[in-house]
Amino acid sequence: MTGSRNKNEIVVRDKVSGDLQIIDMATGEVIQSESKLDLDQSQYVFSYEKALLVCQEVAAGRTLLDIGNDTSFPPLHVINHWQRTDRMFAEEMKLARKMRADHYHDRVAEIAQNAVNLNYREKEDIANAKLAADQYKWLADKGNPEKYSSKVVHEGSADKPIVMRVINTGIDRSKPDIIVDSTKEVTDGEE
Fold it and tell me: Taking the model in full, what pTM does it have?
């Protein structure tokens, strides 16, 4: 599995045999397959320095799929394994994803700045820019909801509790009872 992988190739593990395979994403063809016993495992031993580089790439806006396909980093399944087995790396990844929300926020700002230069006769360009901005907003919201969420959260604490005041305005909004006029006589034929 050593060597270069291009962007159209992905490394996966066969569920039955456990072999690692390089698959061409365009055709689905297995390009190379190696037994996990034949693989040089030393290149995938956990390295805190390499793990921090992965976190830096995530914070800069790259996806784990993209990083895993980059030959200068371990494959995606190794990065995921590191997250499951190393608590410190898992925490660093959470922080990196939170920081990536800033990247997505900046992308929304770039789109807004570039929108000034769009040819407004091209409705497709405007729709595409709006769609991209909305997706980046969503990603920023999910990555760091405390900072970028549009939802309002009312939170109290022991020092500053949420105070609710009920004010009686004197308006009674309940339905009145049906009142029958008992002074009127009803004769046959009259209603």
Answer: 0.54
